[in-house]
Amino acid sequence: MDKILRIQMDGPKVSEGPLGDYAGLGGRAMTSTIISKEVPPLCHPLGEDNKIVFAPGMLSGTASVMSGRLSVGCKSPLTGGIKEANSGGQAAQVLARLGYAAIVLEGKPKDDTLYKVFIDKDGVKITEDNSLKKLGNYDLVEKMKADHGDKITCMSIGPAGEMKMSAASIAITDMELRPTRHAGRGGVGAVMGSKGVKVIVLDDTGMKIRSPKDPEKFKAANKAFTEGLKKHPVTGQGLPAYGTNVLTNVINEAGAYPTRNFASGQFEGVSKISGETQAETETARGGLATHGCHRGCIIKCSGVYNDKDGNYLTKQPEYETVWAHGGNCCIDDLDAIALMDRMDDDFGLDTIEMGVAIGVAMEAGLLKFGDAEAAINLLREVGKGTPLGRILGNGAGITGKVFGVERVPVVKNQALPAYDPRTVQGIGVTYATTTMGADHTAGYAVATNIMKVGGDVDPLKPEGQVELSRNLQIATAAIDSTGMCLFIAFAILDQPETFQALVDLLNGFYGLSMTGDDVTELGKSVLKKERDFNEQAGFTSKDDRLPAFFSKIPLSPHNLTFQVKDEELDTLHNW
Amino acid sequence: MDKILRIQMDGPKVSEGPLGDYAGLGGRAMTSTIISKEVPPLCHPLGEDNKIVFAPGMLSGTASVMSGRLSVGCKSPLTGGIKEANSGGQAAQVLARLGYAAIVLEGKPKDDTLYKVFIDKDGVKITEDNSLKKLGNYDLVEKMKADHGDKITCMSIGPAGEMKMSAASIAITDMELRPTRHAGRGGVGAVMGSKGVKVIVLDDTGMKIRSPKDPEKFKAANKAFTEGLKKHPVTGQGLPAYGTNVLTNVINEAGAYPTRNFASGQFEGVSKISGETQAETETARGGLATHGCHRGCIIKCSGVYNDKDGNYLTKQPEYETVWAHGGNCCIDDLDAIALMDRMDDDFGLDTIEMGVAIGVAMEAGLLKFGDAEAAINLLREVGKGTPLGRILGNGAGITGKVFGVERVPVVKNQALPAYDPRTVQGIGVTYATTTMGADHTAGYAVATNIMKVGGDVDPLKPEGQVELSRNLQIATAAIDSTGMCLFIAFAILDQPETFQALVDLLNGFYGLSMTGDDVTELGKSVLKKERDFNEQAGFTSKDDRLPAFFSKIPLSPHNLTFQVKDEELDTLHNW
């Protein structure tokens, strides 16, 4: 992982070089540093001056557990700011073993030609292949398997990315070579589409696992880290048993489950779509309730969702997906939700953005809340790229504007995820202030507000939320740079020895002597670069706000509004 | 003109009150002061906290010539900033004679009920009238005539305003009771639609002309002012003879005529759509090549455009309309352009925003450049509110985003008018820096750059453009507050005695002793309020920029890019 691959698409022309200024960086630290240094903040996100960076984390490709997260960075066509979208799947491990700390797509092709990029131990091959046009991710991967065998990993866009939709994702294949993991948020797929690249196929056959500088220390740290994850109730029990959808009952019980496009905080149909019901359904149909998305995952929060006939339909839909297409739209049909998850994965769409966009369309009266069939049909339009589909495919904000809707749950034009900020005030602070646009993963205050992980801050009160969110945002920026799955946060927040094991993993691998404070400094430096980029792109404190309705209209059942004051939000980035 | 009428639409409830803090204000000074004082800058433009203000100018309703301009102000759903859209037609004169310095629509109705507001000397009547739903402005006005006789003036929205499209205008009837004058820009029609008001019908029967404090001085000033306008070549000859479309040949000759969505600076079909051809066509078909839009107009820059059979089709399309639907889309068919003008007026749409949106759709490949029939069909979709129509009806910016287009000529999300900033660098400064979003009328540097009115600043060079635009923006803000048509600017810039006559008109009417400097101060104070509002709404210097392509891609035939530096643009509001 000592080189950077650059592909200039106005050619295309390939160049490889040493890390230079970027040495020592990984994941989000790598993508955000390259973007903030090389991309003009006011450039058009789909223009030749934008770049898209794929970077494995610092520990990706090593023997470390949980180190398979990939960062994808660019200027976002959805938010207009900097973006790091983070994905599981195999790509980070494979890229790292192929020796690449980053792949950067630059420039813009002269015409609509579509390209395939193939990378293995022998180098990089770029081929024109217009036969791939408008292929869904599933068909595309089958074609790649036919061409290149089944030892590959794919990073690809579906029709949505080709159509440069702002909700377009980049699909990353999992261990079974299914395009089920996505760098979902912020329209990274549209930027890949604007570069004319349909798929990057990776094959690490013949490449070795990355070797640590201090094998003994690294091995011991990995053991301690593994034990720490196993013993924490969230990563050792809850997530493996029910996946992320274990949250449906929890969040609904807390009255924080945004229902009917954020009109209420509890959904009456929740038992039909909960993680418990989902796991039961999966098991009964011969699917899997527990499954990891990449080599080295020991949490295994995913699963396999089969249809009624027992045939594979999609991976286990995540909590946010089940919420976005489910409760948010008053849809209580798990099969319909799973089908929409499959469609999103196939078209290459962010499930959160799409579910919220459909909810806004429901609010506009285009279809009824609860009408699963109409929602599926609407999603079909997105895949086809009809005018209506293009509206939805460009996200909840555009959908709201086009149909004149007032209640549009977006921050920096990115759709809010599955926790209402009126009942989980800490996550509201994160939504408002993160550099990413509304994003729960940028500082998951739900952990401390609801699950009481890493402390206990009352979710219903404004006190302490800014400090909580600030600390979580800093920690997250650091974790996102290591290649570690964010779910390690539960254990490292609660268990000091597990946090130390993470630091030891980094020190053992790189022969460093970092302390916890150094990790914090890394997180701060990433956030600062991102924030500077956004400021130069025209963002101000006015962009660090929730939509006004959260402060005006109380949410049932707690009848609360978002209480954190603007002046407090404005202190988040002071440290 | 000593009272303000407020209609709270969550009722609706009518209240009238004295001017209070707003005494002495008119037109844009009135609308921008009320909006900046009463509307939260971060509110949703279609929500209950936004207000829409209709204000005649300081001299409207008097015997002064040219004093019939109406200002319509709100927070714009198109730009997200403050908006003053300015219109001719009869409304300003009539409103002023009815005694209203402003009508303010506030709050929001509880449901979709549509209201008619009728105002005459006996007061205000508000009626629910859902039979008006989706009526075009022409049919609507016929209905109002049937109900209220032909002494009325209407301010109304078409289907576009009801659908809350960001390109929706407010139609103002002219002397023949045709809905041909529009407060066009920034989506003011959508805000009126969000208030549930389809039409405000005004009848000033029984009301008197407003009396000056110093009748002698006022009368003398009016005479001198009239003479000044008559003797200036632009207002005395060019505009009466050919209307604003006299510019087509002039601007094309200068290489500043944006063609094919701002891809080149000259249009080969220009002779077919020039003002000269247009006037000839109008006369030959029994229309009018010269016509005033309101009582007291002596410039008479408008006309009547009949179809091939000699039947009224629309008023004489303006230069900007002919350009937007014509040269910008490579359409050289005057009849097709006139039909689109009629459709825009009927649906209630800004012709500039629509023409530019269609050009962007052409760039996206939805229809071919030059295909008039396809353009007309596309416009029909807007009127119907199909998904495709909703995209276009929300403006060029949204159209560009939805279809992933890179060359989208907007500033603050508002479409650029008919002068390419690479060849008329002064107007580029105005587009970039005005509080309004791209707007030629906010500081018409074309006058000095091309017509050499008020001085001579080389249009092809960056030098002097910021100072020119600054002075024009200040002067314009003042003129827009008097109720005077902006076309008086040609004469008052070139002829000191005509400027003095304007000051004397104000002094004679109000019994004041203002100087020219006071007029300048008025303009500055208006701009400052608008700029403060926009800053609080989240605008920064990064919003005071042209799209990047103007600085990157040279325009033929001069092969120039926009040369004014960002740092210079940032000094515009320093005075």
What does this structure look like?
The structure is a homodimer of 575-residue chains. The first copy, chain A, is of the alpha+beta class and 575 residues long. Chain A has a domain at 3-202: 4-Layer Sandwich (Aldehyde Ferredoxin Oxidoreductase,  A, domain 1), CATH 3.60.9.10. In chain A, 40% of the residues lie in helices and 14% in strands. Chain A is built from 23 helices and 17 strands. Chain A has helices at 27-38, 91-97, 137-148, 159-162, 188-194, 215-231, 233-242, 247-253, 275-284, 319-325, 334-347, 351-363, 372-384, 387-393, 395-402, 425-433, 446-449, 465-482, 488-494, 496-510, 516-536, 549-552, 566-569; strands spanning 3-8, 13-18, 52-56, 70-75, 82-87, 100-106, 115-120, 123-128, 153-156, 170-172, 181-183, 197-202, 288-291, 302-306, 312-315, 410-411, 414-415. Chain A has a 6-stranded mixed β-sheet. The longest helix of chain A is centred in the last third of the chain and has 21 residues, at 516-536. Chain A is globular and about 60 Å long. The first copy, chain A, starts with a strand and ends in a 6-residue tail after the last helix. The model of chain A has no long low-confidence stretch (mean pLDDT 97). At the A-B interface, helix 5, helix 14 and helix 15 of A face helix 5, helix 14 and helix 15 of B.
